Amino acid sequence: MDLKSIKKKNLYEEIVYQIIQFTQNENLKPGDKLPPENKLMDLFDVSKTSVREALNILATRGIIEKRPGVGSILKEVTGSVFVENIANRLIMGEQALREILEFRRVIEVEAAGLAAERATKEQINKLREAHLNLIKANENGGIGIEEDYLFHYIIIISSGNSIFSSIFDTISTRFFEAIKITKNQSVMLSQQYITDTHKEHQKILEAIEAKDAYAARSEMLEHLQKNEQKLWSNELKFS
């Protein structure tokens, strides 16, 4: 198993994440015991204090149970607890932004296709309204962060997949922050970018209205990829 030494930044959270990866890689089940602290120290090349703090975090989040004289026992982990753990790890920096943008591609492309197949008339009307509100916000000189977020959120809901919705709700703050960072970059404030966004959203909307799942997925993927290409071609600012 390829376990990397932990960097000092966000140390405890990184150890937490690595321990969760370890339990998955080793196929540990609820009731199984984690390796002792000394073993975890060696695996992750960190101090005993850091390991203990990470285990305390896992216990607080309901991932493990610490039993005196026995050790740390893996508990039954629900999907929402696991997703929340991922969300807690994503303190927004460049690497975290890359991860959330990659995750958006996985979720939103498929959600767009499902929305084309399943969206109700009311949901399509709300999506159209969100699209028009973004255009209006931009025409009034605004960036349209909330309006852009709402457009994508409605597509997630319109997919009719409750797991997609639950994941999105759990890490919605990170999704919103990713959109905010993206739209606040200088390249994204140009009139050309704004016009392109309107056209791309329009194509996504039209594909969903036409119940064309293939086109909806294709248009969403192209939209997200274009945003990423523009974003990484410039020096990022996270404030």
Tell me about this structure.
Helices cover 69% and strands 3% of the residues. Residues 1-9, 78-84, 86-92 and 235-239 have low confidence and may be disordered. Helix 1 runs antiparallel to helix 4 and helix 5 crosses helix 7 (145-158). It has 11 helices and 2 strands. The radius of gyration is 21 Å and the shape is elongated. It has helices at residues 11-25, 37-44, 48-60, 79-89, 94-118, 121-139, 145-158, 162-170, 172-184, 191-209, 213-232; strands spanning 64-67, 71-74. A two-stranded antiparallel sheet has the order 1-2. Strand 1 (64-67) and strand 2 (71-74) form a beta hairpin. The protein folds into 2 domains: 11-81, Winged helix-like DNA-binding domain superfamily/Winged helix DNA-binding domain (Arc Repressor Mutant, subunit A, Orthogonal Bundle); 92-232, Up-down Bundle (Four Helix Bundle (Hemerythrin (Met), subunit A)), CATH 1.20.120.530. It has 239 residues and is mostly helical. The longest helix is centred in the middle third of the chain and has 25 residues, at 94-118.
List keywords for this structure.
11 helices; DNA-binding; Arc Repressor Mutant, subunit A; transcription regulation; FadR family transcriptional regulator; mainly alpha; 239 residues; GntR_C; Four Helix Bundle (Hemerythrin (Met), subunit A); DNA-binding transcription factor activity
